[in-house]
Design goal:
By secondary structure, the chain is α+β, with helices and mostly antiparallel strands. The chain contains three helices and five strands, in the order αβαββββα. Strands 1-5-4-3-2 form a five-stranded mixed β-sheet.
Length: about 140
Amino acid sequence: MSADDSRALLERYVHDVWDEGDPEAVERFLAPGYRRHASPTAAPIDLAGQVERLKGFRRAFPDITIEVEDIIAGEVRVAFRSTMRGTHQGDLLGIPPTGRSVTVPLLDVLRIEDGLFVEQWGGPDMFDLVRQLGATVVPEG
């Protein structure tokens, strides 16, 4: 893929999955062996897990929007910085709906193979998201 193709793939992904609110569309963009690395210490999320993760965000924030701020595209990787906005109207991570509006930064890097995303690193700043919902993170142990 050219850098322009990589950029266009990302833009279609954001439009179809987020702007149109269709988490099922994700399967048109993610390879069957897709892996999302949300944390260096947690096991990667597979395709089915990513679909459920996106559905969970949509349930928690039915009015969610993703505004892409920057895209850096190459032939096999695309990185983007974006801002997620939404109103907390459903359970998220065990946090009941608060009605609060959130604005959360995201930073993602995706690797592309055969026109599909095969790996992804990064995502939303979950600590900031939880803080904006008025919840706290308690360390284990």
